[in-house]
Specification:
127 residues; alpha+beta; 3 helices; 15% strand
Length: 127
């Protein structure tokens, strides 16, 4: 078994160098600390909580829309889903009563209801 002397200027392969080692800086440079920039405050946004259209104007527009749909043999029904409390719009064929389109869809309403039930299971009064 042979023992070899190790010199100070031994070259090391770049992939063998530990990059986590922090080099010592002179005392003059060690005192300079970079301060983080202050976080700007969030802008305040004014939200108008008043409805854009009055209920009378809304009823007039719905009546106008229903008149336009009569010529196409279609009807629009506005309602509120009992389980979720969300507004629902249904477009139906007036003569057959067939549902042409519903917004939000039945699947979306069921998903909303399931999410509400899951929230009740995840978060209760103790948490």
């Amino acid at each position: 078994m042979a023992i070899e002397a190790v010199a100070d200027n031994v070259s090391v392969a770049p992939n063998m160098v530990d990059k986590r080692v922090v080099k010592q800086q002179p005392a003059a440079q060690a005192e300079t600390v970079v301060k983080p920039k202050p976080v700007p405050s969030a802008p305040k946004i004014q939200i108008n909580r008043e409805p854009v259209i009055s209920s009378n104007e809304l009823e007039a527009k719905i009546a106008e829309l229903n008149e336009a749909m009569v010529s196409r043999n279609q009807a629009i029904v506005f309602s509120k889903d009992a389980a979720t409390g969300k507004d629902v719009v249904r477009v139906t064929n007036k003569s057959t009563g067939e549902l042409i389109r519903q917004m939000p869809s039945v699947e979306a309403l069921k998903a909303m209801q399931n999410i509400d039930q899951m929230m009740g299971l995840i978060f209760n009064q103790r948490t």
